[in-house]
Write a structure and sequence with these properties.
The complex is a heterodimer of chains A (181) and B (160). By secondary structure, chain A is mainly α. Chain A is built from eight helices and no strands. Chain B is built from five helices and no strands. The chains are: A mainly alpha (181), B mainly alpha (160).
């Protein structure tokens, strides 16, 4: 089996995971595709090491994740650091918001429609909130790791994740009311 | 600020809820043409001769050889660098144009040094309090400009 054939089967095996990671973080299919492509090209550049590594999947996800975060940080305007100091958005509830706190919901209880809406809601969250939420819930990173990765304070990570969860809950609430659940 | 009683419970329940519903999301699948585009890019890169690729993409043996060659050059420069530089300078000085340029640069540098020396004498002759006051005013102006800029930025963001 030539290197190219081996690489092709390697891409087939890992492309969904890498693309999913990028898409969840970026919320944009075109950018996620570019990041996935770049990740595998880098893997090809280090093929001698990657092909024999048992942790290649983890390496790929880390490279993809770092590329996504770099991309988002490049997009961020120079003065966006001031958002750290900006007052809370009055349209969103704070920690003492008015939403009732939900009981844990079983995944099986979500309808197909709710899943679609939830997916869209995650993709349309503000970038800081989406990245923090995805890294916490999908990449199994803790608050400290996320703060270091995103170069922001621990408090901001916690607030972003909390706001993201509230926003998702709010988006699902009308559907839940319609369905009477 | 310490969390209020009950606030931590709410946060935990919200976390469990989010874990549950986000776990229900299907994993996105890669576009069907992603594999083809990756392989095409790799093929294009392979078609480029090694010496036109970035260094990290060179064949392993060539990377080692180039690193070794660089180490030899640096070692020679370290041990015999002075002699080599003096020899080059002597050779260059034989050329009229280089000698004239060198003398001109030396004169410009001398003149610059004299100007700086004159400014230094003027500053030293000023009363110390006047110098400190002028420096303080400059620092205050600089800080207030930064502060006003930040305040204006936040005002514009809030209003937009």
């Amino acid at each position: 089996m030539s290197d190219t054939d081996h690489f092709e089967s390697f891409v087939r095996e890992h492309q969904d995971k890498v693309y999913a990671t990028a898409l969840r973080i970026l919320g944009n299919e075109t950018e996620a595709r570019d990041v996935a492509q770049e990740t595998f090209v880098r893997a090809w550049h280090h093929w001698d090491d990657v092909s024999s590594s048992t942790s290649a999947a983890g390496w790929l996800k880390t490279v993809a994740r770092n590329q996504c975060i770099n991309l988002l940080q490049r997009h961020r305007a120079r003065w966006s650091n001031f958002t750290d100091l900006s007052p809370d958005d009055p349209s969103e509830p704070g920690f003492e918001g008015t939403l009732s706190v939900p009981e844990a919901q079983s995944a099986q209880l979500l309808t197909q429609e709710q899943r679609v809406i939830l997916g869209e809601a995650v993709a349309t969250l503000p970038p800081d909130q989406r990245v923090a939420l995805v890294l916490y819930h999908f990449e199994d990173m803790d608050y400290g790791e996320i703060a270091r990765e995103m170069c922001v304070s621990l408090g901001k990570v916690k607030t972003d994740i909390h706001r993201a969860r509230r926003a998702l809950y709010k988006r699902l609430q009308p559907l839940r009311d319609d369905l009477g659940c | 600020m310490k969390p209020r009683v009950g606030q931590q419970d709410d946060g935990d329940r919200m976390e469990r809820w989010a874990d549950g519903v986000l776990g229900a999301l299907p994993e996105p699948t890669a576009p069907h043409d992603l594999l083809a585009s990756i392989l095409e890019r790799v093929r294009r890169e392979q078609a480029v001769p090694w010496h036109r690729r970035p260094w990290h993409a060179w064949p392993t043996a060539l990377r080692w050889a180039s690193a070794l060659a660089l180490a030899v050059v640096l070692g020679l420069a370290w041990s015999r660098g002075d002699e080599a530089i003096r020899a080059v300078a002597r050779a260059l000085h034989q050329v009229d144009a280089v000698r004239v340029a060198h003398e001109t640069v030396a004169r410009v540098l001398d003149a610059g040094g004299a100007c700086l020396g004159a400014v230094g004498h003027v500053v030293q002759s000023l009363p110390r309090t006047a110098t400190l006051a002028a420096a303080s005013v400059l620092v205050a102006l600089w800080i207030s400009t930064l502060g006003l800029g930040a305040a204006l930025w936040r005002l514009l963001r809030t209003s937009s």
